[in-house]
Amino acid sequence: MSDREGHVGPGSSDDDLSLPKATVAKMISELLPSDVTCAKETRDLVIECCVEFIHLISSEANEICEQESKKTIAPEHIIGALKLLGFDSFTAEVEDVLKDHKQQQKDREKKADKIRDSGLTPEELQAKQEELFALSRAKFAQPQQLQQQLPQPQT
Question: I want to staple 32 with a disulfide (CB 3.0 to 4.6 A). Which of 36, 50, 61, 108 is the partner?
């Protein structure tokens, strides 16, 4: 193991590391049936387990990375760590997520290239953007104006 393992930065401790409680609570509630609730203590325990799992995978991936004399943990190191730790059943889904992520990155790059390759100056692009915002505001304001013009029911 590396002597840096487990240390995030100067003066940091594991107590400083966590996941957003609201996000975890939302994920839990989406997975549970609607008639089942989750106690705050349970949510906190799930968060601690997730943080511990991340530590475990990161440490193992770091070891693999160091054995390969690499300085950056790559997705392949994470997948290797999952396999070494006995989480083989997770690797197919992780590889699918990685593939989707790479495709999203390519799509974002294509959009950026499209803007760059449009032949428009930054000023023209800004004018086009402002025009689109104005159209959007007009569409949004139109239903509100109609609603204001309708007679209000009397109580």
Answer: 36
Under 8 Å between Cβ of 78 and 61: yes
Q: What is the pTM of this model?
A: 0.61
Instruction: Return the DSSP state at 94.
Output: H
Token digits for 13?
């401790």
Token duo for residue 135: 């159209």
CA contacts within 13 A on the Cβ side of 111: 6
Structure tokens at 118: 């449009």
CA proximity to 49, closest of 37, 41, 39, 60: 41
End-to-end CA distance of the chain: 74
pLDDT of residue 16: 74
The Cα-based distances of 105 to 73, 99, 140 in angstroms read: 19, 10, 31
Percent of the chain with pLDDT over 90: 60
